[in-house]
Amino acid sequence: MLMGVQCHWVLSWIYRRKLRAKFGLPAEPCGDCCVHFCCESCALCQEHAELKNRGMDPSKGLH
């Protein structure tokens, strides 16, 4: 159980990478891994805003 709590950012990082690939977004100034490891809450807010700005429902993800 503890291992899952410590590594949750890895799943978020993979999702961010898929989001960038789908919409052709640049990985600058930091890579996806760095962004999620250092400030996951900021990264999740960015991803939520990106989906909303594209008219998608963030609760449904990329589908």
TrEMBL record:
The record, for PANTHER family, names: DUF614 FAMILY PROTEIN-RELATED
Task: Report the source organism.
Answer: Quercus suber (Cork oak)
Q: Sorted alphabetically, which Pfam families does this protein's record hold?
A: PLAC8
**What is this protein identified as?**
Cell number regulator 10
Q: Which InterPro entries match?
A: PLAC_motif_containing
Q: Which gene encodes it?
A: CNR10_1
